[in-house]
Specification:
Elements (H helix, E strand, L loop, with lengths): L3 E3 L2 E7 L4 E6 L13 H12 L14 E8 L2 E6 L6 H4 L26 E7 L3 E6 L12 E6 L3 H10 L14 H5 L7 E13 L9 H10 L2 H8 L4 E3 L22 H10 L6 E7 L3 H15 L3 E7 L4 H8 L5 E4 L17 E7 L32 E6 L6 H9 L11 E2 L2 E3 L10
Parallel strand pairs: 8-15, 11-12, 11-13
Antiparallel strand pairs: 1-17, 2-3, 3-5, 4-5, 6-7, 7-8, 9-13, 9-14, 10-14, 16-17
Helix pairs in contact: 5-7, 6-8
Amino acid sequence: MVPSAPASAQSWDITGEGRVYVFHLRPGVRFHDGSALDARDVKFSLDRARDENSQNAQKALFASIESVEVLDDLTVRVTLGAPDGGFLFNMAWGDAVIVAPESITEIKQKPVGTGAFRFRDWAQGDHITLVRNPDYWGKPARLEQVTFKFISDPTAAFAAMMAGDVDAFPGFPAPGRLPQFEADPRFQVLVGTTEGETILAINNKLKPLNDVRVREAIAHAIDRQAIIDGAMFGLGNPIGTHFAPHHPAYVDLTGLSRHDPERARDLLAEAGYAQGFSTTLKLPPPSYARRSGAIVAMQLRAVGIETQITNFGVGAVARRSVSRQEFRADHRQPCRALRHRHLCAPRLLFSVRQRRVPGPERRAECRDRPRCARGSAGGDAAPHRGGLRQRLSFPARHADGGRCQAARALEGRADAGHRPDRGLLGAVTDPAHAGIA
C-alpha cells in the first residue's frame, strides 16, 4: 500500500483503538474560487460521499465511517464503525476529494479544488486544460499549463507520439510499439512496475460458476505467462494475490492455481461438467483487455469451456450488465490492488509492468515553439515566452476516465513520480510510474 502524506490535513491523531481519527487541517488553504477550506467543507464532502444516494464511484471507501464531526474551524473528528487499516489510504483517493457546498451545483462542468492546478476548460471527449494555481498552499507547480488529451485508440496514440502532438503518454496502450520508440533517438523508454492488476472477475452467483470446483478449473486452465507474452509482449509478472509484487506484503501464491489443463478437466468432471459447458466473456474497450481476453477464451476452450466473447462499452451498458447479472466473466484491470479485494476471482492473472516513453528531445525547438517542455509532466522544461507548457495524453479507459484523472490533478502536482494530492491526504511517490512522453 502506498503510504499517505500530509496535504490539506497537516496532521492527524488516531485513538479509540483505531476507530477515531482527528484531522488537523492546514491553515490558509483556499479553493480556486478564493474561499477558505475549513472543517465544514470536510464534513460536507465526506457526508456527501457516504450518503445512501451518493453517486460516488468509490462509495465503498466511506462505508466504515460512522460519523463526521466539526470540532472547530480546522479540526475534524471522523469515527469509524470498526478499525480500518486502509482508512488513511482511502482518504488519499481522488474520490475523497474535499469540495465546498458553494461550488457543488456546477462541479461536474467546472470543478473547484484546492490543488496546484486550476481548471480552465474541458472539451468533452477531446481534452481538459489546467493552469497553474498561483495561490496554491504548497510547492508551486513547475508548469504554467497542462493539457490532457483523451486518446483511446492505440494506433492513434502511436501516431500522436510520433508526430509530436503530445509530450507524455503515461500507460501507453500499445506495448508492441515500444521497440520502435526504443530505436528512435528522440524518445526514451522507461520500464517499471505499477499497482495495476489484470484480473478475470467471475459472477459466482450463476451456475455453473457458483461451484468452487468450476472456478478452480478455470484458474488451472489459464496460462498467465502466455497471456503476458501474447497480450502484453512480455511486460508483466504472474501474481497470485491482490497485491503487486513490489508491495511489502506480497506473497507469491501463483502455485495454488498453476497452469494445469489436466487438473482443470478433472475438476470439471468432478463438478459434473465432464463435457464442459458454455459461458460468456465480456470485455471492456481497452486494448489490453481485448488482446488478453482472446487468449483466455482460447485457453478455456482447450479444457472444454466453450467461451463466447462479447465486447461491451462502458458507462450505462456496463452498469446494466452488472445490475441484471448478464455477465458470467469479466476481464478487466482495476486501478488499485485493493479496489476489488471483495471479488471471488480465480486468482489474479498478472501484474503489468508498464513503460514510460518520455518524449522527443526538443531543446533546439524550444526557443521558437510554445510546446517546449520535455519529458513527463514534472520533467525538466525549457523556458519560453509566456512560461512553460506541456501537453499530456492518457488512454480513456472509461467513458469519463480521462476527465476523472484530469480532475484529480486539480488536487495535486504534475511533478514526475507523484500522484496528485488528494483530499485530506496526498499519496506519495509510487514504487514506479509508467507512461509515454
